[in-house]
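Workshop exercise sheet. Pairs work together: one partner reads the sequence aloud, the other fills in the structure field after running the prediction. Swap roles for the next sheet.
Pair: D.N. / O.F.
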Amino acid sequence: QVAKPAAALPKDATAAQKSELLSLLVQIARDPLSAKLDIPANRASLDINAVCDAHARKYERSYMGDMDALGVRPPDVLTRVTEYIPKIVTFIEEIVKNGFAYESGGSVYLDLMAYEKAGFDYRKLKPCGPAKACGGEEGEAEATTEAEMEEGEGALADTSAEKRHPNDFALWKTSKPGEPTWSSPWGEGRPGWHIECSVVATDILGPNLDIHAGGEDLKFPHHDNEIAQTEARYASQYGDTKQWCNFFFHAGHLHIKGLKMSKSLKNFITIGQALEKHSARSLRMLFLLQKWDQPMTFSDQTLDDAKSKEASIVSFFHQVKELARRDYLSKKVGYVSGEDGVYDRELASKLLDVQTTVHEALCDNFDTPKAMEAMLELVSAFNVYVRKEEGEYASTLLSMRIARYLTKMFRMLGLTNDADSFGLDLGGGGEGGGDLETTLAPYLDVLVDFREEIRQLAFAHKGNELAQILLAKCDDLRDDKLVDAGVALEDRPGDQKALWKLSSPDVLRKEVQERKERALEAAIRKLEVKVTRIEKDVQAAHDYLSVTTPFGPDEYGSYDEASGMPLTTKDGEVLGKGPLKKAKKKLDAFEKKRADFLKKKVPGDGEKNQEDVARYLVSLESELKETKDAVNAMRG
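Structure field:
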């Protein structure tokens, strides 16, 4: 079947013609090649079902691991299609009994003509209009294109079975060689591509579903076919509503740097790869800042924006915890910041406004970008508030109230690690218990104070070798040992005390690594600027040694040997007053430039000559090589 069109293919065939022939070859050779490749010599002893099950279990475990790493809460019930085969068969039998499905060639198909004649609508989520307007005949089910059927049936579709209507889709398929297979009233086969979702959903949640979700690409055929087969199964229970599910949520696709993520575009990134560079919280922040039902962009810019906003939130909680550790009862209480407590009142009013905005945003199609924007505005308002009067009169109780509200909302949105925690605190009622941060605070405060005293002593003797060792050890404590213990330490300028916070060691390690990478890039940029400067100096030294006059070789005819001033034109005529003045100006500028070079660039005191410049050039070239080598070493 392939040889004939291949023989007729001209030598200068277009890429489209070659592609068409290749597609034909794949289509014709698919089944025999699959049978040959899937069945080894010991085919009698090979358990295809076990092989496929092991394959699925591998990726099931990988998926659940990815979800755990992302901080996604586990499902209430986990199901496997292979453990639902008996119920799938029973489900299909009921559809056949109801008159909405038929057997053909060992496969079972949903009868869309019968389904629509019973008053049901097909393609609710992605309708194509009346059947006749979609290319069908009056009274037929709505037309579906061949491409859509290919997507609905999959690449393993059985083209030999006879269907009553081309749009009818498979509930049960006759298995081909190399496919898993189970016994059924229609012979050996496997479930169709949509049926398991209906069977599992109705088994766990009953014949009516309130909310169903998935990607926007699943509207048709998957979700529309789910609806049809489920309503065909429970037709007698739905009455006039003729409806299985009340609401569908369809999430937007993920776009990598503006293009939909796809293996074919080579812009595919796994969850594991993303988590190697970014924390789970940063990724969740990235998605919360974009509408869930629109395309979501994963790029350096959106990630930087998410991390920046995440950092501002972390800093906010850090400041509130510092306030909470103060003895606020030893100071004036109430609204006392600003005249008549105006700053406190403004912040309290802002909190109420934000609570209203966030509630309305989440009620409006889960508008998380708007909700996050409002909460970030509250964080910004707090930052302005706490800087007023140097924070001396900042209300601890008001700050804690804001922090509790934001914690509640961020926990609901999955930005905290304890969103799914349960159990009572260790204190059994408040005695000796409390959260980990409260428990560790006295010890960490002592450690931070001791480290700060060591640093100040070292700074006071900065030229001392021991002082440098102590400073390096203090940095090591901050960047490595405390990070591994889940403690972040932030040194602040001047006499301000260093701040600490508790966080995930993995998150902190990523932050430290990113900080080191930024410092490395800054150091490289600094050296690259130095390279550019040295290269200019090298060129200037070369010019000094090789260029001894500002005049070109054919610009004038003769020169004064002592001064270097031109005397005649290249034609032998004596220069007039005007040309002499112009040449003098040019020569003076040239000499001044050379004098400035000797004075400002060439090291040494007193008179300097060409030998000094030559030595300077050698040192420059050596320094240039060392600097370039340092840049290359840093870049690895």
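Discussion prompt: The CA atoms of residues 83 and 178 lie 20 Å apart. What would you look at next?
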